Amino acid sequence: MPTLTPSEVRQPRWVPLLVLLATVALGVGLGFALPPLARWLHRLLEGTPLPSLGPVELLAGLTLAWSVPILGGLGVVGGVLLALSTIGESLRLTVADDHLEHRTDDREGWVERDEVSDVYRDGRYVVILGLTDAPRERLDADTLRRDEVRAAFEAHGWPWRDADPHERAYEQWMDGRPGFSADEHALLRRRLADRKDAAAVAEVDGALAAHGLAARVREDRLQVRRLGVVPAEDPRGAQG
Predict the structure, then answer these.
(1) What is the DSSP string of 33-91?
(2) How many CA atoms lie within 13 A of 229 on its CB side?
(3) How far is CA 128 from CA 95, 147, 202, in A?
(4) 179-194: per-residue pLDDT in tens?
(5) d(CA 106, CA 2)
(6) Model's pTM, two decimal places?
(7) How far apart are CA 221 and CA 129, in angstroms?
(8) Best label site of 73, 75, 108, 159, fewest CB within 10 Å?
(9) CB 100 within 8 A of CB 115
């Protein structure tokens, strides 16, 4: 069977363009709106003992011929910076028959196909489970089209699942709940506290896997499961 060409999955090109146009439009809009607003506020402050603010006086003195180009230009600069940031922070995937490459400007990685048991989408993330069923990677794919991500993995024979195959194995964690050691509780507290820090989450997930645990967050609450525990109804077969 011939090897397929690796599939590239990228953020749609219109996303950074939309960010740029929206920021420029905001700058131009502020150019029209701020001087009249500043003049109204300046007149309001004149009738009170409160001092008039320097930026308010500056904006109040601007005509539209100056305010629109100035704030519109700032919008262009800000839009370009935001668009470049959007491009750099967006996940890029290269899916091949035997491996996966993932990269952003801050991080890149390589995953061998024969070291993976399952791949599924969990909200904004693509989660890759290792052979011990511990999370191997949790990739922020929020700017990638869901259908394209799934199609890329399925085209190369990766075990894509419609849902977490261990959905029924999770239980709600509460600090101090019996069944966890002091070290496990400490790691789980950290996992919940650092849930918005991708690097910290990856580090804690690795430490939890060493304790035979996997964790996830649902509605700002932590859920946890023991590795190797198969639920009564395992949805592994649901591949869509």
Answers:
(1) HHHHHHHHHHHHHHTSSSPPPHHHHHHHT--HHHHHHHHHHHHHHHHHHHHHHHHHHS-
(2) 14
(3) 13, 17, 12
(4) 999 999 999 999 999 9
(5) 34
(6) 0.77
(7) 21
(8) 108
(9) no
